[in-house]
Amino acid sequence: MVWVFTTLLLASRYAIASESHWPISGPWSQPSEPAPEVTPFELPTIKGNSPHFNTPIPALKAAPKIDPDTIFDIITHCYPEKSKFKIDLSLVAGVKSSINQYDASNWPDITEHYVGIVGKMPLYSTTEQARERQWEYQRRTATATAVSAFAEALANRNHAYRELGLYLAMEARSQARVRQGVANVKEQVGFLEKVASAQRDILKFEAKVVEQRLTLISMCDDLRAPDINQYLKNIAHLPPPNTSEAQ
């Protein structure tokens, strides 16, 4: 019985040794070549490090309310001082040449030949008043147009910022869907184009805000222009979003 157990033990040891050490070298005795790491193509977002789609950019804080009537009243009261010289003056010129048959040797020369210019200045001029009313109307109309364009540019700028935040979240969600193979890359490309378009709109409307602000300032005199400029800058300021709040 002991002899049988010893024979089985030696046979098992020989089998293990024969499995670990072959008597001949096989064709696969060299170390295995590591497989290359293949990563699928991932379309980046237009911003680079986009926010996670579960925590999109929160809504912007409310911008200062715009009162167009107040802005119009301020601009009309900061016009440069009106001109003091507003006279409706008419000039009449006359020429006279006199040939006298009598002896005029002792007369002064001015009695024979002279040129005269006479100015007529009325105390009440309807022409000047009509001209002044027309000039004032044109100036106030230009001011109203600039105020309206300023308010419109601010509204479009604020809307474009909010639109950009939503598109960034949708772009990040689309990127995750493409990474998991759920959606085609065309979906992400579509949102990428929307993000780029919204960013261009922001730049365009920001430039429009600056243009209209400078237009309004140019209507004021140099003494009050700095204060009006600071007032318009405060109105145009858009507070950044509160990132601690997820919408």
Question: In a nutshell, what does this entry contain?
Answer:
Keywords: Signal. The chain contains five helices and two strands.
Key attributes of the depicted protein:
247 residues; rod-shaped; two-stranded antiparallel sheet; mainly alpha
Biggest β-sheet: count, sense, barrel?
2 strands, antiparallel
For the CA atoms, what is the radius of gyration? 45 Å
Can you count the helices?
5
- Termini separation comes to 82 Å
Percent helix, as a range, is 40-55%
Q: What strand order characterises the main sheet?
A: 1-2
Query: What average pLDDT do the residues reach?
Result: 73
Strand content: 5-15%
Number of strands: 2
Secondary-structure element order, N to C:
HHEEHHH
* SS-based class: mainly alpha
Q: Which blocks of ≥5 consecutive residues have pLDDT under 50?
A: 14-19
Shape: rod-shaped
Notes on the structure:
Keywords: Signal. Residues 1-17 form the signal peptide. This protein has helices at residues 2-20, 68-77, 126-179, 185-218, 225-236; strands at 90-97, 113-120. The protein is mainly alpha-helical and 247 residues long. Among the domains are: 68-80 and 125-236; 90-120, no CATH class. The chain has a two-stranded antiparallel sheet with strand order 1-2. It is rod-shaped, with a radius of gyration of 45 Å.
